[in-house]
């Protein structure tokens, strides 16, 4: 896997089947830019590492929902959710790519 340099040449985007990913014109816009677009098969979270990461963050935020509602500044708690995602993806890509 190579770092993305901002150039769409020889780029591939793989998305799940979330309805927002099928917005009219997205596929054509990407193809016009030379980017290939593929969709994962429906109901295949095992092919999408983001599902597990977002699941972890959702559980974290659910556990702290009452705190998020009560504190004056929930930003530190939300930042911790970001760090969970960052750590998950860093570990995922270091170990699998």
In short:
The chain is mostly helical and 97 residues long. The protein has helices spanning 26-32, 49-63, 65-70, 75-96; strands at residues 11-15, 35-39.
Low-confidence spans: none
Question: What is the overall shape?
Answer: elongated
Looking across the biggest beta sheet, what order are the strands in?
Answer: 1-2
Terminal-residue CA separation: 6 Å
What's the pLDDT, averaged over the residues? 77
Largest sheet: 2 strands, parallel
Domain Tc1-like transposase DDE: 7-63
Organism: Amphimedon queenslandica (Sponge)
Pfam family, one: DDE_3
Protein name: Tc1-like transposase DDE domain-containing protein
Characterization of the model:
- The protein has 97 residues and is mostly helical.
- The protein has two domains: 1-42, no CATH class; 48-96.
- The chain has helices spanning 26-32, 49-63, 65-70, 75-96, and strands spanning 11-15, 35-39.
- Strands 1-2 form a two-stranded parallel ribbon.
- It holds the Pfam family DDE_3.
- It comes from Amphimedon queenslandica.
Keywords:
97 residues, two-stranded parallel ribbon, 2 strands
List the helices and strands and how they pair.
Layout: E1 11-15, H1 26-32, E2 35-39, H2 49-63, H3 65-70, H4 75-96
Helix pairs in contact: 2-4
